[in-house]
Amino acid sequence: MADYDSSSEHSDLSTEQLLALLNSIQQFAAEPASFLISLARNAELSEAKTALGECLKEVLNAFKASEELCGNTLGWARKEMMHEYAQQLLQLMYSASGIRFSARNATAEHFESINIDDISTQMREHAPDLWDLLGVLLDANIDLSYGRRKEAERQAKKKKGGQVDEDDKADEDYWDNKGAARDQVNDDETEDFESPESQEPPVTAATKSTPGCFVCMSAMMQSTNQRCNALQSLIGLFLHACNAPETAVELRAHIGVSISTSAIRDAISTYAFDNIDMDLKNATLTLENALPTLIHLTSGTFLQLQHSVTLEDLQCADELWSKSKLNPDRTSTHAPVSNTQFAQIHPETPNHPLGLLQCERFIHNLREAKPEVIDGIPLTKSQQKHVQMMDTPCLTAAQKAAVLEDMASKQGGVGDPHDAGDNAEAKKL
User: Fold this and answer.
1) Cβ atoms within 10 A of the Cβ of 73, count?
2) What does the DSSP 8-state code read for residue 269?
3) pTM summary value
4) Distances in Å between the alpha carbon of 52 and those of 13, 22, 59, 60, 100?
5) If you write DSSP's letter for every residue of 198-211 in order, what string do you get?
6) Residue spans per domain, the chain
7) What is the pLDDT of residues 162-187, one digit of tens each?
8) Which end of the chain is more exposed for a tag (fewer CB within 10 A), N or C?
């Protein structure tokens, strides 16, 4: 078997040589495409296939440069890579951990366990080609990004107080001149600028826009599977904390970078008050002022009761406590109703002449028609009012009681804080 020297340069054959090769192939009733396909599928001619593989990049570049072959070559590559990108994305969704996240059933611990760096690493591992593609697209102007990185490095050295060496000074002059030249280029003109020394700066994972790749891939996964919304859940919580308008939240949800407002409401538990810890790092501790920099505050909110509810309607603490099973001194004579008693409210007739059952009527009312509304409570929109920040932590029971008293008496206007009679009802509740 002949030896194939793949290291030698491949010079173009003349037309006469190509015609001779084509005639030789046609003598075997074959086509040029059949020759290449058979060579690639043959298991015995390994050396020839290895030599062809080593120069395959040059072969594909020649196909791309040909007007007759360019369309089919790029079309095949586009179709194959689209399939490969989709498979890598599916592999990432079903193999990586921490990708699938249910915001509706999440707890505070689930949100705290989301690690952006870990998810980004898994994205690069399970979908490397898609990650590299997004990095190239987000940093398409390699030459311009190279200049920005050099400028950022130079500014970082200046902030640290370091001296800029001669090489950095030369790079600075180069990019200044290059920027001036770019400003002189018209909109309809193009000019290729080359970076110093290497004329084509290497593109590595460190030079790509990692946050942009992470956001794009997160949006792709969320569009494919609604449960792959770890990033969207975090952004939704952030928008809720910033009191963002509902239209802004829905806009980001349609874009694919946030969850919907309904999902945010399901993810957020209803809090009567919440504690806030602040570290005043700008405060300086002295012997005269040895107070800690960490302070504990409490915030709160009011939800106004509608439907003409008055203060007298809420005076029910004594009655509830007198009937509560937790009250050891309960004086109420009303025994609690058991589940069996509930089931016997409308007993069935054992021997009905027509064999009718009431449950059939119940099923008809629930499925076929809505139940009749009796003393229905109209649906109204709740009004929310935020209270002022309170300089009281809510750690112990006494502190929580003080917070509730501050909210109800001082800020809510419910009772007089100095009137023990009015506060007795609130303390019981």
Assistant:
1) 16
2) P
3) 0.47
4) 16, 18, 9, 11, 43
5) TSS----GGGS-HH
6) 271-280+293-322+384-429
7) 555 555 555 555 555 555 444 444 44
8) N
Token duo for residue 372: 């009749």
pLDDT digits (tens, 9 = 90+) for 360-377: 677 677 677 777 788 888
Output the pLDDT for position 180: 46
Instruction: Please report the pLDDT score of residue 202 as a whole number.
Output: 44
Cα–Cα distance for residue pair 109/239, rounded to 1 Å? 19
**Tokens in use for 161?**
């107080």
Query: CA angle, 427 as apex, 426 and 429 as ends, to 5°?
Result: 65
Average pLDDT over residues 315-328: 81
Task: Collect all residues with Cβ–Cβ distance below 8 Å to 299 and sequence separation of at least 6.
Answer: 273, 274, 275, 276, 386, 387, 389, 390
Please give the full DSSP string across 36-98, using - where no structure is assigned. Answer: HHHHHH-SS-HHHHHHHHHTHHHHHHHHHHSHHHHHHHHHHHHHHHHHHHHHHHHHHHHHSSS
- What gap in Å lies between CA 162 and CA 156, rounded to an integer? 9
For residue 103, give the DSSP letter.
S
Mean pLDDT of all residues in the chain?
Answer: 74
Q: Tell me, what's the pLDDT at 397?
A: 80
Closest CA to 88 of 188, 204, 217, 214: 217
Q: In a 10 Å sphere around its CB, with 0-12 CB exposed, 13-18 middle and 19+ buried, how is residue 217 labelled? A: buried
DSSP state of 22: H
- Both tokens assigned to 120: 């980004």
User: 243 in the Ramachandran plot: left (φ > 0), alpha (ψ -120 to 50) or beta?
Assistant: left
> What is the rounded average pLDDT of the residues 289-307?
73
pLDDT digits (tens, 9 = 90+) for 379-393: 888 777 777 778 777
Asked if pLDDT for residue 196 goes beyond 80, the answer is no
Residues 238 and 246: their CA atoms lie apart, in Å, by 13
376 Ramachandran zone, left/alpha/beta (phi>0; psi -120 to 50):
beta
Angle between helices 116-126 and 128-138 (to 10 degrees): 110
Q: Which residue has the higher pLDDT, 210 or 203?
A: 210
Q: How many CB atoms lie within 10 A of CB 173?
A: 10
Cα gap 27→267, rounded to integer Å: 74
Q: Is 146 exposed, middle or buried (0-12, 13-18, 19+ CB in 10 A)?
A: buried
- Please determine, for residue 89, whether its predicted confidence score (pLDDT) is greater than 60: yes
